[in-house]
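dumping this here before i forget
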Amino acid sequence: MAFLLAACGDNLPPRGEFEIVGHHDLGAKGMWSAIAAVDDYIYVGSRNDQKGIQIVDVSDPSAPAIVGEVGPPNEGIPGMSSRELRIVPSRNLLIVLNLRCSPDLHGCNGAGEGENLKFFDITDRRAPALLSSYLVAGTMFRPRSPHEFFVWSDDTRVLVYVTAPPSSPSLEVIDATDPTTPVRLAAWDPGMAGLMKNPGGDDILHSISVSDDGTRAYLSHQQSGLLVADVSALPEVTLVTPPDQALTWEPALTMGPHSAVPMKGRDVLVVTEEIYPMPFGTGCPWGHLHVVDMADPTALVEVGEFALPENDPAYCATPRPNITYTAHNVTTTEDLALVTWYAGGLQAIDVSDPTNPRQLAELRPDPLPSVTVEDPALGGAPIEMWSYPIIKDGRIYVVDARNGLYVLSYHGYGAEQIAHTSFREGNSNL
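structure:
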C-alpha cells in the first residue's frame, strides 16, 4: 500500500492522502497510455503497437479484472498507438485517437495506417463495435499529426476538438453527433489570427480544452503562449487574447504551456509544461505547474507556480538520462488539481489560493519488478504517470504507463469535492 499520510496539528498546513483501493498490472506489459471510464469499466490505451485497448471491469474496485480487448484489425496495429481515449456515456460512444508511434520514443515498428480517430459503439461494454474512422492527415509539404483531443457534448451534439500540428490548420473541430459519419465543422490555426510562432519544431498548438458551456477554448501553444478563443459561433473561431498578449514563461523559448484546464466554477486555469530529458528535450529543470488568472481573458496573468523537489539545482547538476519529473495532465475540482507528473507520480495540489499552490499528497507507487517493454525514452525511472486522472463516483482512476491501473481514494483537505463528484476529467466537459 503506497500513500502519503495526512499531517495533523492545528498550526500545520492542510494535507491529504491517496489510498490505493485496487491495482491491476495489466499483464506487466508496460507502455500504457490514456484511460476512459464508463459505468464499471475502464478502457486502457497503448503507447506502443504491441497490444490493443484493454477493457477492465472495476465493479469490485479492490480487484480490477481484464474482461476484453479491442485488437486487430481495429487496434493493436503495427506502427500505431491508441494514444488517447474518451467516452460519451449518454451515447454509448468510445472515441480513440490513433497515431503513428515512434521507434525511438515508443519502440514501435511497422507501416501503420493513416492517423485517425475511430468511433466505437460500446452498448456492449465488453465488445466495442467500430462505427467509423475519421482520417486526420496533412501532406508531404504540410505535415499534420493528431496529438490531443477534447470532447464537448450536450443534449444535442458531440464535438471533438483535435489539435493536429505542426502545419495549418492545427485545430480541427469534428461534429460526431452522428458517429457513423463524423464531419469537419471547423479548421483553424492561431496563425490565421495573427499569432507569430517562435522558431523551432516544438512551437506547436499542443492541446486544447473547452469551457463547460462550450463558449471558450483554452489554447496551449508551446513557446508562443497560452490564449483564450471564442468558439461560441462555430465554424468561426476568434481569439479573445490578442496574439501579442499570449502568456509565455520566462526565460524566452522555454517549452511553454502544454495543457490548460480550468478550475471548476472559477476563472483560474491550471497549466502544465512538459519537458523531456535530452536528447528529446532540454532536461532538468523540469516543467512546472503554473496557475493562471483568466478573469480578463484578454490579459492572462500567471499568479502561482509549483514544482517538485527534483527541480533543485543540486539535483539538476547530475545528468538524468531517460527520466523526467515534469507536470503533464490535470483534472480539477473547485480547489484541487490532480496532476500526473511522470516519475513524480500523481500529485494532489491545493489551488484554493491560486497565488500559493501547495502539495497536499503524492502517489509514487511501489513499482513492478519488471515489465515486458520498458519505455525506451523515459524508462530511467520505474514510475511513469502520464494520462489525465479520472474522478468517478468519488474514486480516482489513473494509469501508470509502466505499472498499470490504479483505483484510489483520497482523504484529507478537499476530500468532499472528490467524494461528491460523479464524473470529471480534464479532457472533456462530461
